[in-house]
Amino acid sequence: MGPATRRRESAFVSRRLLRNPILVTLILALASLFVYLAGIANPPQMFYDEGYYVPAARAMLANQPNPNPQAPPLGKLLIAAGIDTLGDNPFGWRAPSAICGALTLSAVFAWTYVLLDDLGLALIAAALAFFSNFTFVMSRVAMMDASLVAFLMWCLVAYTAAHRPEMSAARRRMLMCCAGTLAGLAGACKWNAVDTLAVMLCVSFGLPWLAKRMKPDAQGSLAQYARALQQIGIPWLLLSLLVCPIVSYALTFWPLCHSLRLPFEMHRIVEMNRYIWRWHRTVVGNRAIISSWYTWPFKTVPQRGISYLLGNPVVMWGGLVALIYCVWRLKKSFDLPEALAALLYMANLLQWAVTPMNGVAYYYYYPAAMVLCVALAVSLRNAPKRVFGVRISLVLLWGAGAVFLWCIPRMAHLEAPWDCVLGCWS
Question: Is residue 412 part of a domain?
Fold first, then answer.
């Protein structure tokens, strides 16, 4: 075998490996983790809400009273693990968020691939999530949102995989249990995970009901998804989407009780959660950072206190157009990718219209922003590939990448003059 033949065979093997979605998922996770960890110790002092969560993580490690009882424990436990492993310093505080950000990016790819069975579109969704600004900023601050979204996105990967036609009943049930467990862990970071869980419950019980009431010629792929849910069975759906989330959520309080030297008892967990509820009902919040939820999709001014966070307009506004297109296609025929994208975005945004809190901040838009990245890939599946001879996907990627590069000096807290090397906000 000559050198040329060996090179061709090596290139062929490399191309085949890069078409393996599991390998691509791992590569995306490792590559994005490297980016998120680079310079993560800057700024060297706590900023934004780190002043709430880092002391709480330290208290857990020292078996001292919890100074942040107004939030569930899992996100703080992850910060505590970072401090215990990597040191009580900015790198140790924020490294768990970087890991969760890398897991989020890889989950966006995996979820899109499971939805569409298209490697190219899944890579586009992951690239748009990387360029969205949200993943970069939220992966470099010691707060709860990075862990919330990481668990939520992998929950959606498991939930969607349970609907794939090649799955056996046993695998469907296992995946559905994994989805419910991950939803509970997401809720143990922040309570607003319950909205994604509500969407999964509505879809799981609504699809079979809808399939029975539609004409056979109008069902499209609806019947396939309904059969998958019927194969799982109502008892398993209830176990997966009600019991598993509650159990996994409750178990995250065990390390907290252990650090406080309190017995792990149900009435104590209930009391802790009653306090969380009462606190969020009465807290006023910081008026300087509060913004109305309905302004988030069109926001043009960065949230300066949290690394100049501003969702990439190419992704945020393009995603809204993609969602409208998805809803329009749903009127013609049902398909799970369009339905999940529309329902999850609306649930994660409209929840703030009814959530009984006196103040909400722009970074709460993070879960909905990730759904927009997937919605763009879903819409590209059926949209025209080219407009005036130009590929729409390339325009999106180049535009999003250019905006991301313009924003990154401020998001990374670079010092002058590098903070404005590509221009500054006025």
Answer: yes
Local structure of 303: helix, strand or coil: strand
Long-range contacts of the stretch 411-418 (C-beta < 8 A, 24+): 411/133, 411/136, 411/137, 411/140, 411/307, 411/308, 411/309, 412/39, 412/42, 412/136, 412/140, 412/307, 413/39, 413/42, 413/43, 413/307, 414/42
Q: Supply 71's token pair.
A: 């939030």
Task: Please tell me whether residue 279 adopts helix, strand or coil conformation.
Answer: helix
Is the separation of the CB atoms in 130 and 32 below 8 Å? Answer: yes
SS3 105: helix
pLDDT per position as a tens digit, 297-353: 999 888 888 888 899 999 999 999 999 998 888 877 778 888 889 999 999 999 988
Residue 263 inside a domain? The answer is yes
DSSP 184-250: HHHHTT-GGGHHHHHHHHHHHHHHHHHHHTS-GGG-TTHHHHHHHHHHH-HHHHHIIIIIHHHHHHH
Residue 13 lies in a domain: no
In one-letter notation, the amino acid at residue 159 is Y
186: domain range? 23-420
Residues sharing a CB contact under 8 Å with residue 83, sequence separation 6 or more, in sequence order: 54, 57, 58, 61, 92, 93
Record the pTM: 0.91
Confidence of residue 285 (pLDDT cuts 50, 70, 90): low
Residue closest to 133 by CA, chosen among 311, 302, 308, 301: 311
How many independent structural domains does the chain possess?
1
Distance CA 132, CA 137 (A): 10
62 CB contacts (<8 Å, ≥6 apart)? none
Tokens 């905006």 -> residue: 403
Question: What are the pLDDT digits (tens) for 57-67?
Answer: 999 888 888 88
Evaluate whether residue 258 is within a structural domain. yes
User: How far from 151 is each of 45, 98, 237, 304, CA to CA, in Å?
Assistant: 27, 14, 19, 27
Rounded to 10 degrees, the C-alpha dihedral 377/383/389/393 comes to 0
> What does each C-alpha distance from 109 to 105, 128, 315 come to in angstroms?
7, 10, 16
* Span 214-239, average pLDDT: 75
Angstrom distance (rounded) from CA 355 to CA 192: 9
